[in-house]
Design a protein that fits this description.
With 305 residues, the chain is of the alpha+beta class. The protein has 2 domains: 22-87, no CATH class; 96-303, D-amino Acid Aminotransferase, Chain A, domain 1. 31% of the residues lie in helices and 21% in strands. It has helices at residues 37-51, 57-60, 114-126, 129-132, 155-158, 162-171, 190-193, 200-211, 230-234, 260-278, 289-292; strands at 22-23, 28-32, 66-73, 80-87, 96-103, 134-144, 148-150, 217-219, 223-229, 242-246, 251-253, 302-303. The strands form 3 sheets. It has a 6-stranded antiparallel beta sheet with strand order 10-9-5-6-7-12. Strands 1-2-4-3 form a 4-stranded antiparallel beta sheet, covered by helices on one side. Bound molecules: MYO-inositol-(1,3,4,5,6)-pentakisphosphate and adenosine-5'-diphosphate. MYO-inositol-(1,3,4,5,6)-pentakisphosphate (5MY) is lined by residues 10-11, 38, 100, 102, 123, 137, 221, 223, 247, 249. It comes from Ilex paraguariensis (yerba mate). Pfam families: IPK. It catalyses: 1D-myo-inositol 1,3,4,6-tetrakisphosphate + ATP = 1D-myo-inositol 1,3,4,5,6-pentakisphosphate + ADP + H(+); 1D-myo-inositol 1,4,5-trisphosphate + 2 ATP = 1D-myo-inositol 1,3,4,5,6-pentakisphosphate + 2 ADP + 2 H(+). Inositol phosphate kinase with a broad substrate specificity.
Length: 305
């Protein structure tokens, strides 16, 4: 039985007659193929990637498992439509905190149409993509059993200044984050989520070393999806912090050239996360939302889902 995912934080979302991804009970995520070249590009990427023997296993683990494509009933009621069948990255998680971070200061491939480039350029300029090399594209943070998740409006965190992006990255790993609270994030879980030999930073550094060498693909508009279980962290258990790369609708061949757009964005994200680990107490007194007019971020409601 297919259903709308409980924990999708960005992208095209199913429900209310709209076309979006679905999940089943066995841990599979069904993403509808967009009718234009975006759908075929993503299938081409997954097909090529899954059979490419030059991809080391320690890098392959950063990508969802691909199970091919399948014709299923689309969520918008339009009938049978081909879907990518992928590993559901949050299957088995109870209350995952999730952040979708779109990497690269440029989100369009060189082959894109002028109209599409113009649309993307506008978004890249208006968000943190251009200045920082990445933008937070989707977010939910588990608060508590009573309050559920803090899932602020998507537009509220895509255009943040560097200081406020830093603040969100801190809130993501804090025990005192909620819709109501604007207290300084305590970064309680920074060391077990971002840090350590198997934490997010170590994983990102491993991915970076591959990007310093690989010239097979250029990953425009692709995201890293960070997940962990705050409840486990609260109980002093390993919170299962990990990331996977997602959204390959704009991946093109690398043509023997380094993907400097993705690599640059990745280095920038790594720098932000490393600084949180080296200066966990230095919370963002300079980044008052009230000063920067970004109050909307802090007024989002917690969603009990
Ligand atoms: O349709 P929009 O304006 O919401 O833009 C979509 C993006 O939403 P956002 O910029 O985050 O608001 C959306 O971004 P997210 O996946 O939500 O981060 C995608 O970039 C989507 O493109 P595609 O399906 O991957 O080609 C984008 O769709 P297209 O621009 O490709 O239609
Ligand atoms: N394999 C997956 N497993 C679980 N959730 C996923 C998976 N792929 C994507 N998602 C969820 O869907 C959102 C949008 O995914 P994306 O591939 O970017 O779709 P779109 O092309 O519609 O933007 C992500 O932010 C994430 O929450």
């Amino acid at each position: 039985m297919l259903k709308v995912p409980d924990h999708q934080v960005a992208g095209h979302q199913a429900g209310d007659g709209k076309l979006g991804s679905l999940i089943d009970d066995s841990g599979r995520f069904y993403k509808p193929l967009q009718g234009d070249e975006r759908g075929s590009r993503e299938v081409t990427f997954y097909t090529s990637f899954s059979s490419n023997t030059r991809i080391p296993d320690h890098i392959r683990r950063f990508f969802p498992v691909f199970y091919g494509t399948q014709l299923i009933e689309a969520s918008d009621g339009s009938g049978l439509l081909p879907h990518l069948v992928l590993q559901d990255l949050v299957s088995g998680r109870l209350n995952p905190s999730i952040m979708d971070i779109k990497i690269g200061s440029r989100t369009w491939a060189p082959q894109a149409s002028n109209d599409y480039i113009e649309k993307c350029l506008k978004k890249d300029r208006e968000t943190s993509s251009l200045p920082l090399g990445f933008r937070i594209s989707g977010l939910q943070i588990y608060v508590s059993k009573e309050l559920g998740f803090w899932k602020p409006e998507r537009t509220s965190f895509q255009r943040l200044s560097a200081d406020n992006v830093r603040l969100v990255l801190r809130k993501f790993v804090s025990s005192n984050t909620s819709a109501e609270s604007d207290s300084e994030p305590d970064c309680s879980f920074a060391s077990i989520v971002y840090g350590g030999s198997t934490g997010i930073l170590a994983q990102l550094l491993e991915l970076k070393s591959w990007f310093e060498d690989q010239t097979i693909y250029h990953f425009y508009s692709c995201s890293v999806l960070l997940t962990y279980e705050k409840e486990l962290a609260l109980k002093g258990r390993i919170p299962g912090a990990e990331f996977k790369l997602i959204d390959f609708a704009h991946v093109v061949e690398g043509g023997g050239v380094i993907d400097h757009n993705f690599l640059g964005g990745l280095c920038s994200l790594i720098k932000f996360i490393s600084e949180i680990l080296t200066t966990p107490d230095e919370c963002t007194s300079k980044a008052s939302p009230k000063d920067s007019g970004e109050n909307r971020l802090w007024s989002g409601n917690a969603n009990n889902e």
